[in-house]
Amino acid sequence: MGQVAVSPDGKRLAWVQFGKDGLEIRVATLDDLTKSERVTAAAKPDQHCREGQIVWSPDSKALAFFSDCAKPGDQADLYLSTLGGNAVRRLTELKGYVEAPAFSPDGQSVAFLYVEGATRAAGALAAMKPPSGVIGEDGVEIQRVAVARADAAKPVAPSFATPANLHVYEFDWRPDSKGLAYVAADPPGENNWWVAKLYAQELGGAPKPVLAPAEVSGALHGLQIAVPRWSPDGKAIAFIGGLMSDQGSTGGDVWIVSSDGGQPVDLTPKRPSSPAWIEWADNEHIHVSELAGGNCQLVRIGLQGDRTSPSVVTSFGSPIFSIPGSVGDGRMELSISATADHSIFIFHASTFDHATEVFEAKAGTTMAAGLEGVTQLTHLNDGVEPAWGKSVSLEWKSDEFHVQGWLMLPKGYDPAKKYPLIVEVHGGPAAAVVSHWGGSGGLSATAFSALGYFVLQPNPRGSYGQGEEFTQANRKDFGYGDLRDILAGVDTVLAKYPVDANRVGLTGWSYGGFMSMFAVTQTQRFKAAVAGAGISDWQSYYGENSIDQWMTPYFGASVYDDPAVYAKSSAINFIKQVKTPTLAVVGDRDGECPAPQSYEFWHALRDQHVPTQLVVYPNEGHGFVDPAHRRDVMYRAVEWFAQYMGAGS
Asked: pTM higher than 0.85, yes or no?
């Protein structure tokens, strides 16, 4: 199941689900979700379209969504379905990449992010275009906020609300529908999110800078901002600010600033959690969806006094809910749909042990921890059993830190047997493993578990879930403190479970790929490793990747100003210490972790006569999209671990 959205009046629920012909949109009354109707732009019952990204009109009478029915497989357009009358109108004539539709508060317009003439999806995860022409200048694609009229009688080209020289990442309507707040940067967009600013703009006017993190003093200086949300009275803008390694993977503190600009105020300093989504309840309260340890939870912040002054007093009630699972549209988005009065919250959630369902929570109540603390609204996956083993949340001490991670037991676990262990390190590093249904990416913990391995997925320092101090704890220290955290987690598993200490493997993607390369230069504890889209040499990486702006907040300076701090964490500088057989896999058009990084590591290991193999996948970016390639990565990883560690149980 994909996105869910409750109507503002609390009477209907819309959701996106997998049907026999792919994704489809369903709508039902909230009191009886078993009787749903499909909402589609298809002209005929047998027409197959890609449809999704749903948003309700403020009056709850219409649903806007994107569909490619007019140009199947080629282009999505914005459609409006008037409920009750079965009328579906196409509002736009588009050519490019689109996402994130949002109704204006008065219901007269729908704004969305639009890259006109796009040749690829926006963001650094997508495969980069083959380089040609003047690099960084020719063919730059800019994402802007476009606006379409909700009453359009026929499809037309939308108007642009933001200028052509700013790449917009996220936006929010001003409460009077006459302006926008948005996070944007100079192009190229995939690189400059890390130096983005907060803007406010009248429709038809010029952008007004509200906040530039690089120019403010205090804890936010030089960090990243996301999820701008205008207060109901239009006088303040709340947002999430912190150290973030990837656009779209949000965590930090909740901040607030006057809509006219000024010094931002931290509303959640030293809170041991990582907010990822916010929404105003009223002018004195903000709802926050956050990761706290291994749980996703919803809390409400109360604001007393001048909201944008350092003297503001914040208060927190008990969580409205707190569950040991993933919430929202993505593993780290933690987004929740709410009614207009914020009396009802609707979200879908899953855990390693329970498939995705839709749940309801109500404001004004304190929920118990666990899925039993909320009301389950759907039973689409009743009877679905995992093909992998059970999972447990583990906690351990490392240096001065309290570390959390997830351990997946082998399928058919027998405590009398000895098993191998695979450690899977997440990407980021500003991200976290959250209990969720199914596998992810090209390397799947659930698949390893199903094949008879214990799988440890740690959240070491640098991860979300325990506050900004923990997230920032590996700055200028990549590979050292976080490796100590990981090895302490391995020791915790060995002390509690029947794991063969001589059969421990290591894998990961992106930052996890870096850790897989770096760790085998620092320790001989891992008997085999699989590095997905890794980084072997931070110095050469700085000049090769398409997103070098993310590195300065972590390393403290550019590689040209402080090469030593980059060399300190580069696996290639310790390559003679490697004895661990290592498989490297990467996409040939990866802009985040370019293929030459994997070539360097593979070439060095081969020169040292360490068993190694490099597999480069054509037309793939940082996030693989071809199902055949994703399967192939997993097959090769399984064979690699079986060859050098022995198969699972």
From this structure: yes
